Amino acid sequence: MLWAFTKYHALGNDYIVIDPKNLPSPLTTAQVKTICHRNFGIGSDGILLGPLPSKKAKFALRIFNPDGSEAEKSGNGLRIYSRYLWDRKLVGKEEFTIETPGGLVQAEVMDRGKTVRVEMGKVSFWSNDIPVAGPRREVINEPIHLRGQQFTFCAATVGNPHCVLPLPKISADLAKQIGPLLETHLRFPNRTNVQFMKVLDRKNIQIEIWERGAGYTLASGSSSSAAAAVAHRLGLCDREISVHMPGGVIAIEIGDGFAIRMTGAVTKVSDGVIAREMFSASVVA
After folding, report:
1. Phi and psi for 283 in degrees, rounded to 5?
2. Which domains does the chain have, with CATH numbers?
3. Is the pTM value of this prediction over 0.90?
4. Which one of 3, 76, 79, 159 is at 20 to 30 Å from 118 when CA atoms are compared?
5. What per-residue confidence (pLDDT) applies to 97?
6. Angular region, 68: left φ>0, alpha ψ -120 to 50, beta rest
């Protein structure tokens, strides 16, 4: 049996979309790892499973990381899923609602599918919402020691956890070295996404990203949302912020109560089918 899929990328952050109707049985962790593997599978930063039924929204969505774990929310994933629904003519120009484990979002497809705007919800900096270990507090400018160095971080959630490190200089190497240590640090009981942030001016920031369950990635919508919210919370940026990443730029608008509106590009890559034979070979973790 062949499983149909569609692949997209959002600024280099790529996802495979699978309609659950095309699956003979629920996806297993091993199957997710194989599909996402760059050598033994199709290769992607995750899998989007939908459309799923919802009592709260027009559509629901499950988001799988390459390690088989599930994400509560993904900004790029939501933009890609919205484009997929538009390509299948399940939505038009009107706004629509998607249910994720991280909450409801509003989405709108524009520019003949090439641009998608998502209302990501409100950012919280409170430790019990994120979560971050310790007493209830807003997690702003807290010290943390890693490999003999002290860093200052802020934590936030936009439906999934984020750790933002404001720094004068950032790099992909730094993200790859320090990101894994922060993702699994004991302060973050559910693990965390990590952003290394450099403020360029009042309207622009630059970030490097280590994504929970996926590793180093070229772009992230929820990371852009969290980093922009932190930059504004610290008084370093205004409410409209362009977030520059290796894969491209996402526009973030910060409303009342740190409500986030995200706008960014989506590109379709391919339609295809997955042969079950792919799952018969062992995959190196």
Report:
1. -110, 130
2. 2-113+267-280 (3.10.310.10), 122-265 (3.10.310.10)
3. yes
4. 3
5. 97
6. left
The whole-angstrom separation of Cα 67 and Cα 40 is 14
Question: What CA–CA distances, in Å, run from 4 to 25, 209, 274?
Answer: 14, 30, 6
Low-confidence residues of the chain, pLDDT below 70?
1, 282-285
Q: Look up tokens 């430790």; give the residue.
A: 127
Which tokens is 141 given?
């400018």
Contact 281, 128 (CB under 8 A): no
Task: Locate 85 and state its tokens.
Answer: 């629904």
- Tokens 């001016």 correspond to what residue? 201
End-to-end alpha-carbon separation of the chain, Å?
Answer: 25
Question: Two tokens at 169?
Answer: 């200089």
The encoded tokens of residue 22 equal: 């095309």
Phi, psi at 163, each rounded to 5°: -125, 115
Written as six digits, the tokens of 7 are 């692949």
The two tokens of residue 46 are: 């995750």
The 3-state secondary structure of the chain reads CEEEEEEEEECCEEEEEECHHHCCCCCCHHHHHHHHCCCCCCCCCCEEEEEECCCCCCEEEEEECCCCCEECCCHHHHHHHHHHHHHCCCCCCCCEEEEECCEEEEEEEEHHHCEEEEEEEECECECCCCCCCCCCCECCCEEEEECCEEEEEEEEECCCEEEEEECCCCCHHHHHHHHHHHHCCCCCCCCCEEEEEEEEECCEEEEEEEECCCEEECCCHHHHHHHHHHHHHCCCCCCEEEEEECCEEEEEEECHHHEEEEEEECEEEEEEEEEHHHHHCCCCC
